[in-house]
Amino acid sequence: MLLNIAKQIICSVIILIIFCIIFAIKRNVIPGDIIFYESFQIAFVYIFILFLISNFTIMFPKKFIETTLYSSFLLIILFNVTIPTILDRSVSVTVIGSLKKSDVPLSLEEIRNNFQEIYVLQQDAVNIRLKEQIANGNIQRNDEGNFYLTKKGELTSQIMLGMSNAFNVNTAYIDQ
After folding, report:
1. Last residue of a domain, one of 60, 88, 116
2. Cα separations (Å) of 35 from 44, 53, 103, 145?
3. Is 145 in the same domain as 75?
4. Which residues is 149 bridged to in the sheet?
5. Based on the domain organization, do 20 and 83 belong to the same domain?
6. CA-based Rg of the chain, rounded to a whole angstrom?
């Protein structure tokens, strides 16, 4: 049994590494607008293709393949949520990048200015996040071009506030 678990872990890691290579190539050749959704779509297609291939081969027992694909999918989702998505939108990454670029230590005000310039203005963070929220149905635009929360968005904001309270994290971003 321990040998089977070791095989599944090794297979899952190999599947994750191949996914990372495919995803990196895809992102460099044809990057999508919303990395979070793009990574999930590619993960679903990738695992589905592997599932189809596994059903037409006799190299591995079907049960082994199915459990390995399930754990591989979860590992890929974990990777997507923790690495590309955070790198794509992280305030911390922008702060670290500002300090890395500078030859001298920066004041808090200089870091704030760099953040405003890079994250908000150059990278158009607000517009990008609005597009994401429109794409997932939390926000819509009215005839005047202004944005508002949909019913789904209102529910999402309540869930976020509840989760923030439940896990005792800063509610200032959602509870304005």
Report:
1. 88
2. 14, 27, 31, 25
3. no
4. 139
5. yes
6. 21
55-92 confidence digits (pLDDT tens): 777 666 677 677 888 889 999 999 888 887 777 667 88
Tell me if 67 is assigned to some domain. Answer: yes
Residue 93, Cα to own-chain centre: how many angstroms?
14
Host domain of residue 76: 2-88
Look at the block and give the residue holding tokens 């690495």: 83
As given in the structure block, the two tokens for residue 53 are 């291939």
Tokens read off for 24: 């990196």
* 33 DSSP assignment: S
Residues 63 and 141 in one domain: no
Residue 1 has pLDDT above 80, yes or no: no
Same domain for 82 and 141, yes or no, is no
> Which of 84, 87, 8 lies closest to 43, judged by CA?
84
Spatial contact of 79 and 85, defined as CB atoms under 8 Å apart: no
Overall pTM surpassing 0.85 (yes/no): no
Q: What's the number of domains the chain is made of?
A: 2
Alpha helices in 32-124 (DSSP H): 35-55, 62-82, 84-89, 91-101, 108-115
Task: Count CA atoms closer than 13 A to 117's CA, side-chain side.
Answer: 9
